[in-house]
Amino acid sequence: MNLEQICNQVCNLSKEVGLFIKTERTSNNSIHVEEKGLHDFVTHVDKTSEKKLVDRLSIILPEAGFIAEENTSTKKGEKYNWIIDPLDGTTNYIHGITPYAISIALMDNDRIVLGVVYEIGLDECFYAWENGPAYLNKKIISVSEKKDLKSSLIATGFPYYDYKRIKPFLESLGYFMVNSHGVRRLGSAATDLVYVACGRFEAFYEYGLSPWDVAAGAFIVQQAGGKVSDFKGEKNYIFGKEITASNNLVFDEFLTSIKQYFKP
Questions:
Q1: For position 164, which CATH number holds?
Q2: Are residues 201 and 81 located together in one domain of the fold?
Q3: What gap in Å lies between CA 12 and CA 10, rounded to an integer?
Q4: Do residues 207 and 129 both lie within one domain?
Q5: 120 and 17, same structural domain?
Q6: What DSSP state is assigned to residue 8?
Q7: Segments forming the whole domain that contains residue 191
């Protein structure tokens, strides 16, 4: 399998579907919004975009199944599965603000081998494949070289449905506000992760996420030289609903800080 060739095809597909998403937002068409759950929104654009992605990805790799946010396809592959978020940052999109992104990862059994995140607002395509570097619009990227938390810019996401851990989250937020360059909340976990990969952020953490939110971005962080784990420092970050990511130099200090608030 030529992962580089497949990755280029996925990048082109993401840009095509991204153009549809952007055009729908800037046209006079109204955005039809449904509420899947508490503060969990979906639009006709999410559903149509996912259908477009599934149809084309099925041609690119016919044997692959899908883990897709809107369940456009429930096909499961024996070896390969695409993990898709057709519009990460739907709430941003509904309100006409960026970022919002397409996130696509390819899983080979239990490991990610390819990741693409296309941030539509700035027309930035982040991508990587196994045994290769990470790229942004054809240029190799890497995580930052900041050495400590006090000189780091931290990204996070606010919980929007699972409030059981809201107290430790708010305490951690206060700690990072005081002990770093600051904290940012963009509203798109996929974008947060690739911003770590290219050095705009030093670190990112969030809980309550789904595989399609993090699979591609986490892989790109790793290929860019960073580290990714769950809050325990283990590898259950794709399906475990919690993730931390940073450059190598800050990772241990960052994870230790998170552990003091999010105890097992």
A1: 3.40.190.80
A2: no
A3: 5
A4: no
A5: yes
A6: H
A7: 149-259
What is the C-alpha R_g of the chain? 17
Residues 238/211, Cβ–Cβ less than 8 Å: yes
Phi, psi angle pair for 55, to nearest 5°: -60, -45
User: Which of 179-183's residues contact partners 24+ apart within 8 Å by CB, and which partners?
Assistant: 179/149, 179/150, 179/257, 180/149, 180/150, 180/151, 180/152, 180/153, 180/154, 181/150, 181/151, 181/152, 181/153, 181/154, 182/153, 182/154, 183/154, 183/155, 183/156
Residue type, 130: E
Domain finish residue from 141, 159, 176: 141
pLDDT tens figures, 160-203? 777 888 999 999 999 999 999 999 999 999 999 999 999 999 99
The C-alpha torsion from 182 through 86 and 239 to 37, rounded to 10°, is 80
Q: Quick one: tokens of 123? A: 């027309």
Low-confidence ranges of the chain (pLDDT < 50): 37-39
Please give the Cα distance from 111 to 123 (Å, whole number): 28
Distances, alpha carbon 76 to alpha carbons 80, 109, 177, in Å: 8, 11, 42
Buried b (16+ CB within 10 A) or exposed e, 127-154: bbbbeeebbbeeeebebbebeebeebbb
Q: What is the pLDDT of residues 96-116, one digit of tens each?
A: 899 999 999 999 999 999 999
CA-based nearest residue to 243, from 225, 223, 216: 216
Q: Count how many domains the chain has.
A: 2
Tokens for 231?
């809050």
Decide if 264 is inside a domain. Answer: no
* SS3 at position 54: helix
| 250 found inside a domain | yes
Strands 134-136 and 124-129: antiparallel
Q: Which residue, of 114, 141, 168, is where some domain finishes? A: 141
From CA 55, how far away is CA 226, in angstroms rounded? Answer: 33
